[in-house]
Amino acid sequence: MRELKKILFLCTGNSCRSQMAEGIAKKFTCFQAFSAGTKKSELDLYAVKVMSEIKIDISDQFSKTVNELEDKDFEYVFTLCSDAEENCPILFKGKTIHIGFEDPPKLSEKIYDDLKKLNIYRKVRDEILDFILNISNYI
After folding, report:
1. 30 is a catalytic site residue
2. What is the greatest pairwise CA distance in the chain?
3. Is 11 a catalytic residue?
4. What backbone torsions phi and psi does residue 14 show, to the nearest 5 degrees?
5. Around 112, how many Cα atoms within 13 Å sit in the side-chain half-sphere?
6. Annotated catalytic residue within 88, 107, 119, 122
């Protein structure tokens, strides 16, 4: 049996965008999908909530750094923010592709209305979903 190609979604804290991308890719692609950050953080609960709205459970995922990945043999590494693009270590054998998305926690940090905050997360989630559903355009 042929092994599935591995892809990595890399962000700064591996708390939101990369976690959503990993969950979506696991559901909708034939790749082995992973995520990591340039530094460790906590899984964003708003990301978990908006992902559950599209029937994808990421609640068991956790933040990890690139150094914590046992296997660094990825076919593709997608950097999802400019910080990850600039600080992506040259540890990976695969092709690195930058696809930037806005940062929901940063965009919503001064918003106290949960619905408005969730809408920001939904917008970015939907952009990531669209990207992953069309990932063949990037590879």
Report:
1. no
2. 50
3. yes
4. 50, 45
5. 0
6. 88
Strand partners, 35: 9
Q: Which residues of 66-75 are buried (b: 16+ CB within 10 A; e: fewer)?
A: beebeebebb
Distance CA 64, CA 22 (A): 13
Q: Which two tokens stand for residue 106?
A: 């940063």
pTM of the model: 0.91
**H or E segment to which residue 34 belongs:** strand 32-37
Using the structure block, give the residue that is written with the tokens 């990207």. Answer: 131
Express each pLDDT in 42-85 by its tens digit.
999 999 999 999 999 999 999 998 888 877 788 899 989 766 55
Question: One of 7, 8, 10, 11 is an active-site residue; which one?
Answer: 11
* CA–CA separation, 78 and 84 (whole Å): 9
| DSSP for 52-105, written as a single string | HTTT---TT----BGGG-S----SEEEE-SHHHHHH--TT-SSEEEE-----HH
The one-letter amino acid at 68:
E
Give 23's contacts (C-beta < 8 A, 6+ positions apart): 51, 56, 57, 58, 61
Q: What is the mean pLDDT of the chain?
A: 89
Rg of the chain on CA atoms, in Å: 14
